[in-house]
Amino acid sequence: MVSGVILLTLILGVLLGPLVWTLPIDEIDFSARLQGPSWEHPLGTDDLGQDLLARILYGGRISLAVGFAAMLVAVVVGVVVGALAGMSGPRGDAALMWVTDLFLALPQLPLLLLIIYLFRDSLKEVVGPEVGVFILIVAVIGGFRWMPVARLVRAQFLSLREKEFVEAARALGASRTRLVVRHILPNALGPVIVAATIDVAAAILAESTLSFLGLGFPPDIPTWGRLLFDAKDHLDFSPHWALFPGLAIFLTVLSINYVGDGLRDALDPRRVQ
Amino acid sequence: MANYLLRRLLIAIPSLLGISVILFVVLALAPGDPFGELTTNPAIPPEVRANLRASLGLDDPIHLRYISWLTAMMKGDWGYSFVSRIPVDQLILQRLPTTLAVIGISQIVALAIALPVGVYAATRPYSIFDQVANTLAFVGFSLPTFFTGLVFILIFSITLDWLPFVYRTGIDASGWRWWWEQFRQSIMPIMVLGLFQGATWTRFVRSAVLDVIRLDYVTTARSKGLTEGTVTMKHVVRNAMIPVVTLVALQMPAVFGGAIVTEQIFRVPGIGSLLITSILANDTPVIMAVTFVFAALVIFFNLLADILYGWLDPRISYS
């Protein structure tokens, strides 16, 4: 409950915050470099005198957008693969699950870095730096996180497709597609929702990690990870610069994880007290 | 046993091949010729460039290129670093021990936290200890390693001035003094990784033990008059470890990801920081090789988990 409220506050904060706190994110003011929190700059300023509150609110939009978009990619791919594996015969099932296991064994962070390094420049030329990097990061993070969803969906399909209500629907002459979309899939969604929630947190962490390593969004876009990356060389004089974006990531991930845990308890029929 | 090992090894080969295909496809789809630095260098005359392309096999059909790339990787011919002009395998061998040491010790730390805490919490579910442990575990795995690392530096290096925050390879000391310095500079990266993994594993251990402890055979063991300690240690924990081993093996990619970040923060000279520096320097052969080494390590640890699995669960026959 508490975590839901915190999460909602964070989401509303980054969505509506920039309307209330209207300082620009990139106004350079050398007279106010590396200042701690004050009334003028509630979270202080960075080495160019840019207001940190405004930058954190802006970065939050990107982090959350990446998190939700990557989750959608992961869930869509996972549901499609899982459903295909669950509905096809033993051969197709085995092949798809082998691919799933293979992806689970991939070293994700090195591959993420490799793909972004190889494709960043060419995608930038096609659709512009911000959109290009956004699409790339979302696709790659989502592309490496669909496996748990696929396994869950497959397991659900294998048990659901033998149930009486599915047989009844089949006896009524429902087509295969209709069976899957109208009858099996809705019943398989419970665990998927839980996994999807956790995926949002994992995607936010992945994006922040990339930005923290200096390989995410372009430097002029202040994502939370990027703020930490910029702040890490100034830890001794202005710890606030690193602490506030770090806390923002932590709070977001923690509350999403708690919400996911609560959903799991609520949706799990085998729960024992 | 040897048979079982051999079979597991044979199963690992297709995975390694699959990963190498994925790596190669990524590379082949990439714009330009990431490996052919020389072939796009404008200072080289076009006919020499064409010859170079032919000798590197860049114009061959894709499956031939894959095979020649794979055989080169197998033979240990990993090419030369664009930046430092020394063979890639030497570069990696120099740095691999550091990474393995940091990861290995941090995993031991993680296990030393997760096993006792998880088992103790599960034997007293919903007690105060359980709730505190659960909350801390949640906090622990929601804290990204790069943030804990910075906070550690802030507390222990800058505020308290106890520990150095830059890892040095050449420590000018010997004997105990050397070990002490080594300990002081390694403790922060190890703890950052260890605490993060420990938090994740505590939850795994707790839920696995909780699943087992309700089973009938545990009640039987208790009713035979065994002490609670014997029941937990001998009957519960061993069976509970089976799913934990699987989950831990599935966590290996995340562990290596964490290692890359920590090496970067504390400037530990391992293959993780090598990866980042070579990406920033566009050093493609090194990037490819390090990624491949990480993949091989993940497969290796999965293999290890399989073997451990066979030992923990006698129902899995070795033959």
TrEMBL record, chain B:
Compartments in which it is found: Cell membrane
Species the sequence originates in: Falsiroseomonas algicola
Domain of life: Bacteria
Topological type in the membrane: Multi-pass membrane protein
Pfam families with a match to the protein in the record: BPD_transp_1, BPD_transp_1_N
Sorted UniProt keywords: Cell membrane, Membrane, Transmembrane, Transmembrane helix, Transport
Record-level GO BP terms: transmembrane transport
UniProt record similarity statement: Belongs to the binding-protein-dependent transport system permease family.
InterPro entries, alphabetized: BPD_transp_1_N (IPR045621), MetI-like (IPR000515), MetI-like_sf (IPR035906)
Cellular component terms per the entry's GO annotation: plasma membrane
ABC transmembrane type-1 domain residues: 96-305
Transmembrane segments: 9-30, 100-123, 135-158, 186-205, 242-266, 286-312
Designated name of the protein: ABC transporter permease
